[in-house]
Amino acid sequence: MICAGIDAGSRSIKAALVDTATKAVLAMDNVDQGIDCAALSRALLDRLARTAGIPLDRIACIAATGYGRAMVDVARTTITEITCHARGVHHVAPEARMVIEIGGQDSKVLWLEPSGSVQDFAMNDRCAAGTGRFLEMVAQRFDLPLDGLGALAGKSKQPAVISSMCVVFAETEIIGLLSSGTAHEDIVAGVQHAIAARVAALAGRMVREPVVFTGGVALVSGMDKALETALKKPVKVAPQPQYTGALGAALLAAKHARG
């Protein structure tokens, strides 16, 4: 059975096409989010099907997840991000017992059963200081692409301390650091450590290994090391971490197709 998952995030839309009988991933792709999420999702799905050589009418079920899942009108069902990321991570890293997912709008910590089901979770969706939005703000401030932040932070010898718990006040703090002559790389490294500290606070004392890091922010180099420092535990980046939500949605869509 061929199923598709569409993860309509705040920054991009990701999609995965999966043969749920063999669990083989047939294709994955993404597009930047825009004002017409529905049209972008349909075009992405069409491109994905053409890449895999699968006619659209062979797709048994399409499940949507993510920030904009309600706007994906081509989907037969919607599934929460927590459930989809848990299923996607379990597929690529079945040993995972704790998942850290950092996206553009929120961050999550999931605790998994050996089966991959969610035992518990904690979520930050009220403050941008622990999310990809914080990194985007910093990238804009330094006129860098988002994927250029990691290389700059890697040059830091003394990460700056970013103490503000709000991204708006943190931006003011960053301006103050720039005015005092703090090196750019130390500020960016400080921001990475600040985000990691926010996420570690979500986990509290319940850090359970192995820890797997997923979501778009996992693509920013240095964030995994910042998390390791904050958690005092090894952190593994999931393969193609930006797609775990879409992958999980595609795998879970099979249940709805049979139903």
Question: Can you describe what's shown?
Answer:
The protein is an alpha/beta fold and 259 residues long. The protein folds into two domains: 1-93 and 241-259, Nucleotidyltransferase, domain 5; 95-238, Nucleotidyltransferase, domain 5 (2-Layer Sandwich), CATH 3.30.420. The protein contains eight helices and ten strands. It has helices at 37-52, 81-92, 132-141, 149-153, 167-179, 184-203, 223-231, 244-258, and strands spanning 2-8, 12-19, 24-32, 59-65, 77-78, 98-102, 107-112, 118-124, 211-214, 235-237. A five-stranded mixed β-sheet has the order 3-2-1-4-5. It has a five-stranded mixed β-sheet with strand order 8-7-6-9-10, with helices on both faces. Helix 6 (184-203) packs across helix 7. The longest helix is centred in the C-terminal third of the chain and has 20 residues, at 184-203. The protein starts with a strand and ends with a helix. The mean pLDDT is 92.
